[in-house]
Amino acid sequence: MIQVFKPWYDDEEILAVAEVIKSGWVGLGPKTAQFEKEFAEFSAVKHCVGLNSCTAALDMALKLLDVNHGDEVIVPTMTFVSTAHAVAYNLATPIFADCDEHTLNIDIDDVARKISSRTKAIIVVHYGGRPVDLDRLKRVAGDIPIIEDCAHAAGSRYKGVPVGGIGRIGCFSFHAVKNLAMGEGGAITLNDTALAERAKRLRWLGIDKGTWDRTKLDRSYWWEYNVNEIGLKSHLNDIASAIGLVQLRKLEAANARRREIVALYREGLRGVERVIMPPEDGGDFESAWHLCEIKAQRRDDLSLYLRDRGINTGVHYKPIHMYRCYGNRTMLPVSERIFPTLLTLPLYPALRNSEVEMIIDTIRAFYEQH
Questions:
Q1: Most exposed of 51, 102, 264, 302 (fewest Cβ within 10 Å)?
Q2: Among 4, 145, 11, 176, which residue's Cα sits nearest to residue 73?
């Protein structure tokens, strides 16, 4: 079977993990510190704080902004449930905004309609890797802080600037299928030193000195630390960070290969009227192409047809407001209309041109027969 996603690993990652295991320090330690430094430089921000998932990063971002009971946070409905769940974790209310029909990013006009006196933050997802129009969003948001959910967007750029440092806080995913894949992992990126220091405490139960930090202290008091605020245990570890350092060196080449594959899909499906490709890069927008999400008539039948011929596909995503836990009451007509057409095609750096051609030919064959 051709997979939808596949991490791009080789012996470099294996050797990096072996080095950490042999060192005897596999938790939060020197490799995590090195990854945080290098990813901050890559993202053109002052600080990166490594966490165990993007869900933890979103939760952390809201905690840093003191979001709590009675607050509202505007979120896109067209994304993974973590984005809204993090708001609920912090006892606030997610206010769902519709998507832009063309890009599937959050509809900024709908954001403007839903800002209220209780709006404490706005979370935007760079859907599939394509950056949101952040300058326009900032004009709408005014003083309301913007959290960038960059789960799809490691390596994306808006007006030539890496995403993750344009809003108040960026949240990244390093899950097994992401562009920079650690197996599990996440991070926040930001330029506020005070918030970064607080994040480091909150990720380690509120403790003001991590174990690695305490190894560098006066040995007479090496065990001493303070806990002034209750936090969670959500830090990154050195095994994942060692993989991440290798993946970071490969990221630009991996994303370039993703762009090549999307271009092949675009050319090969040209003229298939019942398939709409995602918008191209250009101007202010450079996507990391985590997803190649087409809009396809008879989506479900096409997916089954491809699966029966050895090609897996996915659907990203069912709009969050349609899930029972959020009440199913909000009406977001664009997302509801588009969702039944969305289909994610296989996209990963190791996907061969011959496999891309087979996928294209199979899609064409389906529509010729139906």
A1: 102
A2: 145
- DSSP character for 346? P
The active-site residue, picked from 178, 209, 250, 295, is 178
The separation between the first and the last C-alpha atoms of the chain, rounded to the nearest angstrom, is: 23
> What is the dihedral sign for C-alpha 166, 52, 56, 325?
positive
Same domain, 171 and 307: no
Least confident piece of the model among 11-20, 58-67, 328-337: 328-337
Phi, psi of 276 (to 5 degrees): -115, 120
Cα torsion for 226, 230, 234, 239, to the nearest 10°? 10
Are residues 259 and 163 part of one domain?
Answer: no
**Claim to verify: residue 92 and residue 69 sit in the same structural domain:** yes
Structural domain boundaries enclosing 324 = 251-369
Q: How far is CA 364 from the centre of its chain?
A: 31
Query: Are 289 and 321 in the same domain?
Result: yes
Does the active-site annotation cover 159?
A: no
Give pLDDT tens digits for 186-242: 999 999 999 999 999 999 999 987 665 655 555 555 667 899 999 999 999 999 999
Residue 178: which residues within 8 A CB-CB, separation 6 or more? 151, 152, 154, 290
358 membership: H or E segment, kind and range: helix 353-369
Contact yes or no for 60/199 (Cβ under 8 A): yes
